[in-house]
Amino acid sequence: MKVAASSLRKGSVVDIDGKLYVVLNAENIHPGKGTPVTQLNMRRISDGVKISERYRTTEQVERAFVDERDHTFLYQDGEGFHFMNPENYDQLVASPEVIGDAAVYLQEGMTVSLSTHDGVPIAITLPQRVTLEIVETEPAVKGQTASSSYKPAILSNGQRAMIPPYITAGTKIVVLTEDGSYVERAKD
C-alpha cells in the first residue's frame, strides 16, 4: 500500500526495494525556500542496519502490512524470546535484535504488543509500567526528607534506578519501561 512520506510516524514499517525497515523517527522539514521534505531515520529489520532517507513530502512510499497483536511472554532460551498468542495458542520466537533494550523488563506471563510481518516478529511494545523488587539500596539516613533527594538502587532485573530515600530493599516498586524511572511504591 503506497502512502505519502509525510504520513509516516515512529514505528511504521516500510518496504524499500523488497527490504523491510522500521521508522525510528520521522521529521517533516519545511524550509523557507524550496520543497518541503520528510527526513526518515530507519532500521532494516533483517540485519539491524540503520539508514537515513529524505523524501519530498508528497512522494509515495510502500508501507508494509504489519499485524499487531497482544502476545504473552513465555521464556527465553538459546533460540530467542518465546511468545504465545492467547487467542489461538500459536507460539512465536523473536530474535534478541528485535527485542533489544526491552529484554530487561520482560517477565514471565507479561502481555506485550508484538508486531509481525508474514508471521515473523519485527517489533515489540511493552506495557508502560512494570513492577520490580528492589534487591539492593543504601540504608535510609535519619533526618533526610522525602522530597530532598533520591538514592540509587539495584532492581530485580539488574537495572539501576533512583528511588526516594524512605524505600528499603525488598520493597516492590513500579517503574516506567521507557526510561526505567521510579513511579511509585507497588500496591500489593
UniProtKB/TrEMBL annotation:
Functional pathway = Protein biosynthesis; polypeptide chain elongation
Q: Which CDD domains match?
A: S1_EF-P_repeat_1
Domain named Elongation factor P C-terminal: residues: 130-185
Query: What GO annotations for molecular function exist for this entry?
Result: translation elongation factor activity
Sorted UniProt keywords:
Cytoplasm, Elongation factor, Protein biosynthesis
| Ranges where the Translation elongation factor P/YeiP central domain occurs | 68-122
Subcellular locations according to the entry: Cytoplasm
Name the NCBIfam families for this protein. Answer: efp, PRK00529.1
The record's similarity note reads:
Belongs to the elongation factor P family.
Q: What does this protein do?
A: Involved in peptide bond synthesis. Stimulates efficient translation and peptide-bond synthesis on native or reconstituted 70S ribosomes in vitro. Probably functions indirectly by altering the affinity of the ribosome for aminoacyl-tRNA, thus increasing their reactivity as acceptors for peptidyl transferase.
Q: What is this protein called?
A: Elongation factor P
* Organism of this sequence: Phenylobacterium terrae
Show the taxonomic lineage: Bacteria, Pseudomonadati, Pseudomonadota, Alphaproteobacteria, Caulobacterales
